[in-house]
Amino acid sequence: MPRIGSSDLTVFPLALGGNVFGWTADESTSHQVLDAYTAAGGDFIDTADVYSAWAPGNSGGESETVIGSWLAKSGKRDDVVIATKGSQHPEFQGLGADTVAKAARASLQRLGTDRIDLYYAHFDDQDTPLEETVRAFDQLVRDGIVRYTAISNYAKDRAAEWIRIADEHGLAKPVAIQPHYNLVTREPYESEIAPLAHEHGLGVVPYFSLAAGFLTGKYRSKEDFAGKDREGQVSGYFTDAGLEVVDSLSTIATAHDTEIATVALAWLQAQPDVVAPIASARNLEQLPALLASAELELTTDELQTLSDASAKVPATA
Predict the structure, then answer these.
(1) How far is it, in rounded angstroms, from Cα 200 to Cα 183?
(2) Rounded to a whole number, what is the largest CA-CA distance in the chain?
(3) What distance in Å separates the CA atoms of residue 161 and residue 150, rounded to the nearest whole number?
(4) pLDDT digits (tens, 9 = 90+) for 216-241
């Protein structure tokens, strides 16, 4: 069970993404997925207060509400690590001190819990002085409603400045960072964020671990994703080099009698400082391939084959 940075949080090496809860997975299906994930030993659930404000009829917070109803129903609050994020909810935009405090408490209410285990600044807010944001996150820890703080989607220099401010003033330091990182998107994470994470002992929790489903192998032509919920996300990954990565994954998956998605996640889990990739399942059928990654150990040659194939993918893909 890997540890999240310098915290005392040890977690299953696959985080269950909550972005689909209340969006492409209704409450009943979401509860089934959560039940199956925890029954298999999973204990790390990732969400955000903005999920899924983009869906017609939604206003933000739907995922947290679904997770909250599951926690109440299952009684498993003490068995799981809950990570959520603030700064993007339509009612709580940005990272000013007052907004941070209100957003975190709104998340608590939707989740039906008295504490958030890991609370991320979802996106940088350059209109707010960074010290104000760092102090606001520290206050959440002092108030006992957040156990550990973290950052997501921060550029290297801004992340380093956050840590410097925390060190200088004796404030809570982030224990994790959540970057966009997968086999077809390795930059700017590997050249910029990875060295910073290693230097400061940050646990890395990658999102878009399966490239919005592209690394499951189910999208082999543009017709495969035309009109789908994730068309806009998948299209950016769809290149000849990207398809070569999927072919390499397929070959290795066949050798292990497993799924392409399993291999893609296992590659991420083998990268330095990665604690647990995030992957979501909108139904029970998608979950086994994700869970299997926790037990799949790729050989050195297999890891290198995948790294070599993915190195050919354009950095802008």
Answers:
(1) 24
(2) 54
(3) 14
(4) 998 776 665 666 666 566 677 878 89
